[in-house]
Design goal:
Elements lengths: L26 E6 L2 E6 L34 E9 L14 E5 L2 E3 L1 E7 L3 E8 L8 H13 L6 E7 L3 E8 L2 H8 L10 H12 L6 E8 L10 H11 L2 E7 L4 H10 L2 E5 L5 H13 L1 E7 L9 E8 L8 E4 L2 E3 L2
Parallel strand pairs: 7-8, 7-10, 10-11, 11-12
Antiparallel strand pairs: 1-2, 3-13, 3-15, 4-5, 4-14, 6-13, 8-9, 14-16
């Protein structure tokens, strides 16, 4: 049967007066997710009969609270390297000699240890045209790093000239990296910042929590899409320590990245000094104190927190201290 909009009125207990036969059409709607069930409940042919239906009470809806994760305290770990005036690592220091500050406020040290864990190292190797005549010495210097590797250490290799290229993905076999390193040929410009970005992305797949970049370069960047400030911000946020050998000239970006991340840069003015520079950096990479604390400023605001570390020497001879200069709150 067809009813026009004018003829059809829908309600509960509504009487139709325009017809000799009163036909209230009653609807009750039972709701289920994504389903609407319409039921015609009754038709009356008696003019004076009023029909009413009491809706079935709906069950009380259960309140489902969204899953939440609350972190009231987060341990901050700051790697610290201490050397004497002759760049020899100091390996017998005690927790009482360390003082750590966050945004100028001294923090209570909760844990202290000498890190003895495998490292994932991304080697960033300059193969621009200016490296001609320096490749053999640079390769030979890196051999010390590969020969002193622990079984669980892993390495990747990114070469760069006009653009970066991943030569070796992360591997526990340093001999493979060494062999591939011998095939690179110097040419072109210097895309240092792009190579750092590429290497950091590769280290995101590292199996070891301790991660570092080892950069060998003889010049400033002159061909990258990324800027110096972007490269510095990247390594600072990624919690990767940057070590570098600057060949013949000082590179501002490398010095800043090493200082911010608690790494080290060594400038060499003779190719014969390359093996010693790599050896010193390797010792510093492996001999690291891990100083941990629970921040007295717990809010998760995502802001950068500056960290300062002081180490008291037992004698008048000053220490050279490097540390990670800060971190981003969650």
């Amino acid at each position: 049967m067809y009813f026009s909009k004018k003829e059809l009125k829908l309600s509960v207990g509504y009487r139709t007066h325009h017809s000799a036969i009163e036909t209230p059409i009653l609807f009750h709607m039972f709701w289920a997710p994504r389903v609407v069930l319409v039921v015609v409940l009754g038709v009356s042919c008696t003019a004076q009969t009023r029909t009413s239906i009491t809706p079935r009470p709906r069950p009380e809806a259960k309140t489902v609270r969204p899953a939440t994760f609350r972190l009231d305290a987060r341990m901050v770990q700051i790697p610290v390297t201490v050397t004497d005036s002759r760049d020899r690592p100091q390996l017998d220091l005690e927790a009482g000699q360390f003082h750590i500050f966050e945004d100028g406020v001294e923090q209570q040290i909760a844990a202290f240890s000498m890190a003895d864990a495998p490292i994932s190292t991304g080697v960033v190797f300059d193969t621009s045209g200016s490296m001609k005549g320096r490749m053999d010495d640079s390769r030979a210097a890196l051999e010390h790093l590969f020969q002193t590797a622990a079984p669980q250490d892993e390495f990747s290799l990114v070469r760069f000239s006009d653009r970066p290229e991943l030569v070796a993905s992360l591997t526990h076999d340093p001999a493979t990296v060494s062999r591939l390193l011998g095939r690179v040929i110097p040419h072109g410009w210097t895309a240092l910042y792009d190579a750092i970005f590429y290497s950091v992305q590769e280290l995101r797949h590292a199996s070891n929590p301790r991660r570092a970049l080892l950069v060998l370069s003889d010049g400033e960047d002159n061909n990258s899409r990324y800027s110096e400030s972007e490269a510095v911000a990247l390594v600072r946020e990624a919690d990767i320590r940057v070590y570098a050998v600057g060949i013949f000239r000082q590179t501002r970006c490398l010095a800043k990245m090493a200082a911010e991340t608690g790494g080290r840069v060594i400038w060499v003015h003779k190719l014969s000094d390359m093996p010693e520079a790599i050896e010193r950096l390797t010792l510093e990479m492996r001999n690291v104190y891990m100083v941990s604390y629970f921040s007295s400023n717990p809010p998760s605001d995502g802001k950068y927190r500056k960290v300062k570390v002081e180490v008291q020497a037992r004698s008048e001879e000053p220490f050279h201290v490097t540390w990670r200069h800060g971190y981003y709150a969650p």
